[in-house]
Amino acid sequence: MPSWVAPVAGYLAGGLLTTLALAAVSIVVSVVLGTVLGALLVLPSRATRLAVRCYVEIWRGLPIIVTLFFIFFVLPVVGLRFDTFVAAAIGLCLWGSSNVAEVVRGAVQSVPHGQADAAAALGFPWHGRMRHVVFPQAVRRALPPLVGLVVNLTQQTSLAAVIGVLDLLQAAQRSIERLTLSSGVTHAVPILGAVLVVYFVICLPLTSLSRRLERSLRQG
Amino acid sequence: MTEPPAADQDTVIELRGVRKSFGELEILKGVDLAVRRGEVVVIIGPSGGGKSTLLRCVNLLEPVTAGQVFLEGEDLTGPGVDLNLIRRRIGMVFQQFNLFPHLTVLDNLTLAPRRLLGLDRREAERQANDLLSRVGLADKVDAHPRRLSGGQQQRVAIARALMMSPHVMLFDEVTSALDPELVSEVLDVMRDLARSGMTMLCVTHEMGFARELGDRLVFVDGGVIAEQGRPADVLDDPRHPRTRQFLHKVLR
Ligand SMILES: Nc1ncnc2c1ncn2[C@@H]1O[C@H](COP(=O)(O)OP(=O)(O)OP(=O)(O)O)[C@@H](O)[C@H]1O
Ligand SMILES: [Mg+2]
């Protein structure tokens, strides 16, 4: 084994940990916050819906990279300074939670109206209809697209590299640069190959889980 | 219009001058209808005439635009009425069954009595089993709705509504989504119910059922009750030209 491999591998492993931490934080916050926001989007209150709708449209509509630049380079101008990891996490959570909110809203609204009607006719108040009849069905419908979003969020963490977070991709890039400077050989192919395999290994089980969920949903 | 609401406890449902619009479109244009205890009222009429809307105005699944709705003398359109409490006394069965697909047949029946009436599981399940036997589905307690035929699903839906011990039952074309050979099993349950003295308001195209079990036949057209009377009279000798035209089409 060539001598450059061990230190690079160690460096990449550190990057991978950062990537996983960033993904974990973004996923947890996005799913929890997004579910709450999605639930607010189906509330009868118009004012609430409007406020949440604004949040969702803004952060879902912006390219994540623009949001990241904004948080990292623009907010410090008004005195809000974040370290790179926190800035990246905030950006990913804004994007993730607004997308989760849309998935949750869509799932709730895809439950046929007859279900809420039947529950109402039995005497369930609004929250009872939601809790016992609509939400349990919405959760099943929301799961496949939610897993898809989790995969997507994991992939999007690589954007954090552009504001300097030392994630897997950034670690790879720096390794390549250093090897080029020190030995004149880039070793880009094996290093980026490793990066590719790692992302693939993380995301493949999730995409296949999403497919399985979708299939089981179709079979009812 | 200012007389006191049907104080006699014999009137279960009363609609007075009920109007309903969706946006600009007025669907019900002043409906007056009183249903006595134990009476079976059958509603017929052309598609889009407002039959479903009329039924949904009885338990106020659709809020009325004008007019009043009374249940056993209580004005449901008045201020401070808790509709969720009122609806427990009004059972409703839908054309599309609307069973809860994520629950077993047993849980479909016990959900509302347990959550709303506070029945304990044992008692709720005992009542559910009794009702399922009554509609001939005792062996389906643990099945999921999607495993049942349309006729079976609709009988479960009727049993589910009966779990709340309603004082009146609303049926909205409950056999229209069924294969022809499954219609009679549902009508049998409804016949049973009618004979047991249940007050019923049924929208249907089953003229045989209307003639056999209806105490009164109501023809709804253009958002009003165009004609009503004893089923045999209306069916055999309709007065209103629109009724004649409609019956001519469906009985042909
Ligand atoms: N929620 C709604 N919003 C707007 N229009 C509605 C709504 N519900 C019903 N309508 C309209 O009201 C009219 C009457 O509908 P309704 O379902 O009461 O008729 P129906 O007599 O039950 O007809 P059918 O025999 O086809 O069931 C229709 O033109 C329908 O399009
Ligand atoms: Mg209808």
Helices, strands, pairings?
The complex is a heterodimer of chains A (about 220) and B (about 250).
Chain A: H1 5-41, H2 46-61, H3 64-74, H4 84-110, H5 113-122, H6 126-156, H7 168-183, H8 188-218
Chain B: E1 11-22, E2 25-36, E3 40-44, H1 51-58, E4 66-71, E5 74-75, H2 83-87, E6 90-93, H3 105-116, H4 121-134, H5 150-162, E7 168-172, H6 183-195, E8 199-203, H7 207-213, E9 216-221, E10 224-229, H8 231-236, H9 241-251
Parallel strand pairs in B: 3-8, 3-9, 6-7, 7-8
Antiparallel strand pairs in B: 1-2, 1-4, 4-5, 9-10
The structure holds adenosine-5'-triphosphate (ATP) and magnesium ion (MG).
Membrane topology (chain B): Peripheral membrane protein
Keywords (chain B): Amino-acid transport, ATP-binding, Cell membrane, Membrane, Nucleotide-binding, Transport
EC number (chain B): 7.4.2.1
Describe what this molecule looks like in 3D.
The complex is a heterodimer of chains A (220) and B (252). Chain A has 220 residues and is an all-alpha fold. Chain A has one domain (4-218): Orthogonal Bundle (MetI-like fold). Chain A is 81% helix and 0% strand. The model of chain A has no long low-confidence stretch (mean pLDDT 92). Chain B is of the alpha/beta class. Chain B is built from 9 helices and 10 strands. Chain B has a 6-stranded mixed β-sheet, sandwiched between helices. In chain B, strands 2-1-4-5 form a 4-stranded antiparallel β-sheet, covered by helices on one side. In chain B, β9 (216-221) and β10 form a beta hairpin. In chain B, α3 crosses α4 (121-134), α3 packs parallel to α5 (150-162) and α5 (150-162) runs parallel beside α6. Classes of the chains: A mainly alpha (220), B alpha/beta (252). Chains A and B meet through α5 and α6 of A and α2, β6, α3 and α5 of B. The complex binds adenosine-5'-triphosphate and magnesium ion.
